[in-house]
Specification:
Elements: H1 3-10, H2 12-25, H3 32-44, H4 49-65, H5 71-86, E1 100-105, H6 112-125, E2 130-135, H7 142-153, E3 156-158, H8 166-180, E4 184-189, H9 196-213, E5 219-226, H10 231-244, E6 248-252, H11 262-270, E7 274-278, E8 286-288, H12 291-298
Parallel strand pairs: 1-4, 1-5, 2-3, 2-4, 5-6, 6-7
Antiparallel strand pairs: 7-8
Length: about 300
């Protein structure tokens, strides 16, 4: 199944939530009521007030500039507007050095470990040598979970005992990666410590170890968010962006959300690209993000 088909299937709940309304709106006339109803529908789809107002205002301006009179052209114009709003930064992972590092951050329960396992499997399938680092030593059984995924994906894992220093785990993983000619190191991190400051201190400590051991490596810091949390996910993202310098977003559980518009809100408000989306439970259900196909499936 290709991206469009999978994303369309994954957005079934969103389509049920806002798709019917969109169809009704575009069956009407291109007047002030149309824009008001579109605004309301997009907000209900979790695009957020600011992002929705920007999208609708841009659409209104372009309809006027391009002298659009019919609804099919207006719908195509809306698709272009939303696609452009999603195109912030480069959606591809930039991991070209040997080794490269991808650091996964985000609160507990968003699907970090699962995402790492799926990405490891995908990279292994592309012929890359992948190593996982179980640096979430705070949560009971986090390393065990990652070990199950490492076996499923057929990649190596570096771990220590529960409660070990996460930076020490990362140091061991980087040392092993250099010795083994690993292409990519995927690092799992804690989603919760005793307070936010502790969590950020831990992430900074891990970053310093990477800086020291692999100063010239390509690095991605990927924030994993659960699409079903909607605007709460956006609040989390803003907090992590302030403190952790994220380079991309991985949005999970999109198939379980009735509010897929959150993807547009996150990209627009954070100006950080969505790099992958999770549209199911299968090992191959983590997909590189394609803005145009996403919007076409949504609208």
């Amino acid at each position: 199944m290709g991206f469009f088909a999978k994303i369309k299937a994954g957005l079934t709940r969103t389509k049920e939530n806002i798709g019917h309304s969109i169809e009704q709106i575009f069956a009407g006339e291109l007047n002030d009521d149309f824009y008001d109803e579109l605004e309301e529908t997009l907000i209900l789809g979790d695009m957020g007030v600011d992002t929705t107002l920007k999208a609708v205002e841009t659409l209104r301006r372009r309809v006027k500039e391009e002298k659009i009179k019919d609804m099919d052209s207006a719908r195509a114009c809306l698709r272009r507007v939303l696609t452009e709003m999603l195109q912030v930064g480069k959606p591809e992972l930039h991991l070209t050095t040997t080794p490269s590092v991808a650091l996964f951050i985000g609160v507990n329960g968003v699907g970090k470990t699962t995402t790492i396992g799926k990405l490891a499997s995908k990279m292994k399938g592309e012929g890359k040598r992948v190593l996982m680092a179980a640096a979430d030593t705070f949560r009971a059984a986090a390393a065990d979970q990652l070990e199950i995924w490492s076996q499923r994906a057929g990649v190596e894992l570096v771990r220590q005992h529960e409660g070990a220093d996460p930076a020490a785990v990362v140091y061991d993983a980087l040392t092993a990666a250099k010795a083994r000619g690993t292409d990519v190191i995927l690092i799992d991190t804690a989603g919760r410590l005793h307070n936010k400051q502790n969590l950020m201190n831990e992430l900074n400590k891990i970053s310093r170890v990477v800086d020291r051991e692999l100063p010239d490596c390509d690095r991605e810091t990927l924030l994993v968010l659960d699409a079903t949390t909607g605007q709460n996910g956006l609040i989390q993202a803003k907090q992590f962006k302030e403190t952790a310098g994220i380079t991309g977003i991985v949005l999970t559980k999109l198939d379980g959300s009735a509010k897929g518009g959150i993807v547009i809100a996150i990209a627009q408000e954070l100006q950080v690209p969505v790099k992958y989306i999770g549209v199911g439970e299968g090992i191959d259900d983590l997909m590189p993000f394609e803005a145009e196909a996403f919007v076409n499936a949504l609208i």
